[in-house]
Design brief:
Keywords: Cell inner membrane, Cell membrane, Membrane, Sugar transport, Symport, Transmembrane, Transmembrane helix, Transport
Radius of gyration: 20 Å
Protein name: L-rhamnose/proton symporter RhaT
Strand content: under 5%
Structural class: mainly alpha
Number of helices: 13
InterPro entries: L-rhamnose-proton_sym_RhaT
Organism: Candidatus Gallibacteroides avistercoris
GO molecular function, one term: rhamnose transmembrane transporter activity
Length: 337
């Protein structure tokens, strides 16, 4: 029962993340870099800070938690800066491939690296016992994502350039694939940052929220990377004027805040969900992969709702649904043993 509750909480957070790109359409007359920086303030600073405060026990402080192990805090932030490159290119993958295909490829790569590397760092034998189950679970997840990727290639093959542009304004398959793969590899550093930040817990901290201070350090590192790039783009493209469009400011801040809250909900849900999983179990080790798989499932549901798959053949839709079914199976596979 606890495992089901944990998975449900992770799924709710995943749905929030997969919905976080929808408010983009409500942001008016801002360049990409202006939107990305503004939503990043909410996604990587404001809400992670508020979430981390929930881990502070009565009579304690957030500074006390972060100073428990300064080295761990710095490592988490360092991994966050590397993850920031992934977060930056992740946003670009949506721009070039759309919500469905962009998230599928980036999150597939992220799920594999973010699950396998921490297991190897802990000395897990991936070819026997629970390590083998973990490896097989990752392989099933990757198989599902590969099938979805194939559906995306069929879509690109069967659509005219006009149809591609109508579904995704800046569609560019080759550029998008390179960006999405880079995003996936670098985004896996978030999982490494969470592992590095595990010592950031003090006595009396709630089990539900104890991972959130580490999450804050990772997102702070990611914010630094993204802010530097976005400010550079603001300078290069002369788009600082976006922030002075006072008639749009309330609308755009509102939807940037909503996007940031929805994005952060995945890690808020992951932290809470893991507290219901058995420590040291395969499901615990597989939790990162579960989150990424759910993100792919929900992002493709949004892709269908946003008509990114409009005009494709029934064969392509069938391939897409098979891929989604494989991903859903991967969520429960480790719990079968």
């Amino acid at each position: 029962m606890n495992t089901f509750i944990g998975l449900l909480i992770i799924a709710i957070g995943s749905f929030g993340q997969s919905s976080s790109y929808v408010p983009i359409n409500k942001v008016k007359e801002w360049s990409w870099e202006s939107f990305w920086l503004t939503q990043g303030i909410f996604a990587w600073l404001v809400f992670p800070f508020l979430g981390a405060l929930l881990a502070v026990p009565a009579g304690g402080s957030l500074c006390q938690i972060l100073s428990v192990d300064v080295s761990a805090a710095c490592k988490a932030m360092g991994y966050g800066m590397l993850w920031g490159v992934g977060g930056l290119t992740f946003g670009l993958s949506m721009r070039y491939l759309g919500v469905a295909l962009g998230q599928s490829i980036a999150l597939g790569t992220c799920s594999a690296f973010g699950t396998i590397i921490p297991a190897l760092m802990k000395g897990t034998d991936l070819f026997s016992g629970s390590g083998l189950i973990l490896l097989l679970g990752v392989c099933i997840t990757l198989a599902g994502i590969a099938i979805i990727g194939y559906a995306g290639s069929l879509r690109a093959r069967n659509m005219s350039e006009e149809e591609k542009r109508a579904a995704v304004k800046d569609f560019a398959l080759t550029k998008g694939l390179v960006v999405a793969l880079t995003a996936g590899i670098m985004s896996a550093c978030f999982a490494l940052g969470l592992e590095a930040g595990e010592p950031l817990v003090v006595s009396g901290a709630s089990e539900l929220f104890k991972t959130l201070p580490a999450t804050l350090m990772v997102t702070c590192g990611g914010f630094l990377t993204n802010a530097a790039y976005c400010l550079y783009q603001n300078t290069k493209n002369k788009t600082f004027g976006d922030y002075r469009k006072t008639s749009l400011l309330v609308n755009n801040l509102l939807f940037c805040a909503l996007a940031g809250l929805l994005w952060y909900s995945q890690f808020f849900g992951l932290g809470m969900g893991k507290s219901f999983l058995e420590p040291g179990s395969v499901m615990m080790a597989f939790s990162w992969c579960i989150l990424m798989a759910l993100n792919v499932v929900f992002s493709n549901v949004w892709g269908i709702l946003l008509k990114e798959w409009k005009g494709v053949s029934s064969q392509t839709i069938t391939v897409l649904l098979v891929g989604l079914a494989v991903l859903i199976f991967s969520l429960v596979f480790p719990n079968l043993f």
